[in-house]
Description:
The structure holds 2 protein chains of 2 kinds.
Chain A: H1 17-24, E1 29-33, E2 39-40, E3 55-59, E4 63-72, E5 86-93, E6 100-105, E7 116-123, E8 129-135
Parallel strand pairs in A: 6-8
Antiparallel strand pairs in A: 1-2, 1-3, 4-5, 4-7, 5-6, 7-8
Chain B: H1 2-7, E1 11-18, H2 29-44, E2 53-58, H3 65-71, E3 79-84, H4 90-102, E4 108-116, H5 147-162, H6 166-180, H7 194-199, E5 202-205, E6 207-208, E7 217-226, H8 227-230, E8 238-247, H9 264-275, E9 284-286, H10 292-301, H11 310-315, H12 332-335, H13 342-353, E10 366-370, E11 379-387
Parallel strand pairs in B: 2-3, 2-4, 9-10
Antiparallel strand pairs in B: 1-7, 1-8, 4-7, 5-6, 8-11, 10-11
Helix pairs in contact in B: 6-10
Amino acid sequence: xxxxxxxxxxxxxxxxxxxxxxxxxxxxxxxxxxxxxxxxxxxxxxxxxxxxxxxxxxxxxxxxxxxxxxxxxxxxxxxxxxxxxxxxxxxxxxxxxxxxxxxxxxxxxxxxxxxxxxxxxxxxxxxxxxxxxxxxxx
Amino acid sequence: xxxxxxxxxxxxxxxxxxxxxxxxxxxxxxxxxxxxxxxxxxxxxxxxxxxxxxxxxxxxxxxxxxxxxxxxxxxxxxxxxxxxxxxxxxxxxxxxxxxxxxxxxxxxxxxxxxxxxxxxxxxxxxxxxxxxxxxxxxxxxxxxxxxxxxxxxxxxxxxxxxxxxxxxxxxxxxxxxxxxxxxxxxxxxxxxxxxxxxxxxxxxxxxxxxxxxxxxxxxxxxxxxxxxxxxxxxxxxxxxxxxxxxxxxxxxxxxxxxxxxxxxxxxxxxxxxxxxxxxxxxxxxxxxxxxxxxxxxxxxxxxxxxxxxxxxxxxxxxxxxxxxxxxxxxxxxxxxxxxxxxxxxxxxxxxxxxxxxxxxxxxxxxxxxxxxxxxxxxxxxxxxxxxxx
Lengths: 138, 389
């Protein structure tokens, strides 16, 4: 389907460029603290737990579970006028569930709390690669 | 604790002022601001030249204090505050002004909020430019960019975890509409039933139209001065008993609790300690109701009922006028209109003055008024007010 106007493209900031480069390459990359091992996302220099500023980018498996979801009916942005109703998920990633990501649901039927999903990489109408989530049985 | 108790009851809200709540004010936010400020100063029995401080919160949508101060001809303001922030900042502004007065930096400060949130800058997000925030890049590409969506996400999690029902969300909308019917300022005064609620169109599931607050053009202003000075003014004194600030949890906070808990749960104990009261002492509560769900989560997180029981508690009738803890006696944002937090404080003042007419909570002495409970913006604030003895 063609969107009436282009959807908002991700506007990377100086911290998030490596994340969006990862998405473009089909990977969900987050930082891992070199000192305490904790994962962090969205990208930032300092670890909120041990305050180390040393970190390494690491690819996640892309597996997660649905923490919550909504079905959008009201059109808040003209790019989505022909897409409503659409389902948006809040997904807790398996490696560290307090890392939660927003993304569109690519699946049949109603989502459910705790449902296993996996990230899929979809190129949007504006040319940017985005992260959607699809049911991942078993 | 000594410092906090030293602040207790030292500052009063001496005047309140409103413009009309409407869908199209046909005037600028500057004009709305000066009208509400003039009304509040007159209500207090003061002269405009008594005002030596102004404060507001904005999200880039309104006249700034430095502009308003010149429009009013106030030549030498001693204290101005222009706070960027939405509903989580509303009560913060009043708290900051109270600190400035208690510290002797200013004598009389007017806090105001002037918005054309329907005719110029739709607060609900429809057609609005994307928010300039770091997290927008992770949300807007997926069509997730508006407050109703963000609160619906939290509400769904609560429904899943605690069994909160659509009927319980609906009880908030129906009850508050009933209160608004007794409020001549309210925009929406015709009663609604639970069936009307359930039949209203989806905005973003699980929210229907009647889960969402009104978008309103309005200004509300509050005059703050020292308790000592307020004693000599024409209105019964309403004292600031406690003010507290809290952090919040955005979706991107490290170690965040689950989505069903708001930062009000952290703020509430220090607010009550500061005020020297507990939830049972509160006679009336004006809780930030951008959406029905935010009322339920605050009833839990401020300790009026157990965690997870906000829905059944509201459904029991406890929060209606005549109940044990009447909530949003003016109808709230859902039915009176949306002044971004300040109309909740103004209503609390009316209740404590005993001037709330048909919706008066008999013998109200202590009120709680809260801001957005810390979802999304990552901060929150709340006030406890009392009638001067």
